[in-house]
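Posting this for the archive.
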Amino acid sequence: MDDEVTGVDEGRALPERTAGERPLGEQAPILPLTENEENAGNAETHTSADYTLSARTRARIADGVPANTRRAYARQWAAFTAWCAEHGRVSLPATAHTLAEYTAGLCDAGQAPASVEQAIAAVRTMHRLAGHPASPATESARLVLRAHKRQRAEDGGRGQREAPPITIDALRAMVSACDLDTPIGRRDRLLLVLGLALMGRRSELVALMREDVREVADGLEVTIRTSKTDKDSAGETIAIPRGSHPLTDPVAAWRDWLQLLDRAGHTEGRLLRRVNRHGTIGPSLGAGAVNVIVRDLAVRAGVPAAERVTAHSLRAGGATVAYAAGVPVAVIAKHGRWAPASPVVLRYIRAVDRWRDNAMRNVGL
């Protein structure tokens, strides 16, 4: 997130309006990539053509941001601008006062801290795109959010709920719940095994093409064409070793599903596909369906906390079991396509360490 607050005086007041600053109602909004006062002196050399973007260019700029992020930020920005209009405030450029007040309103409405964090990030991102990289200041808004988190904790609430990681035993139980004599069962088995072995995001899983997976002497090589942390879509090939158990061997799961795809004539295109109740293999599987499939199998297999299991449980489970097996953190982060210093990976590690390196383990209680 932008502008993390450290060592701030919590009693500090919001800054006063600077001299010469126009009242809120008089400030004209500045739109992204349009001529503004900074360029006014260049009128003799720049024309409107210099500030014009074609529809194709605008579309490509928009496509440069992941679709899920675009949708989330668009929703948050629409809510912020509507709130500003209702309260007589300018949304762009907004003041630190406005962002702090808006944040307080979200907290008063009982929104989860993660949602409030996203709202702040969306406002900052829209300002940066509009040519205001340092606006609005987020210090006061984040202090409001910090107080909200503390109050939730004192009231018995918890932080962001995390999907429980799937262990190897849980994975085998879930695969055992699949009917491997049916196309649905074979597809679901591959989805589960690849999800954990790749430490895959559901967006990565549903985007896999047949040609992205190939068998080699030591197992499978899977090409991830783009991912959340691969913003330039350079792509990366992940090696998945052969398994030691017939139910969860990635190579066996891939071969079994490929046989069905070949019989159905799907010799190219998406790897993971929809299957109707008659066993007919159809178009590509949607990301939303992955959550449904994983949770349903967790419930059928009697996995603990099954109602909280999501597709992310496979990704978390892959990191957790790898660390428990002694794999270095840096190797886990690279395999799972996390940023090297990702706090998410560290959370999975701490979950293992709290038991492996427990202070009370051998005290004789």
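The two ends are 43 Å apart (CA to CA). Residues 322 and 335 are 10 Å apart (CA to CA).
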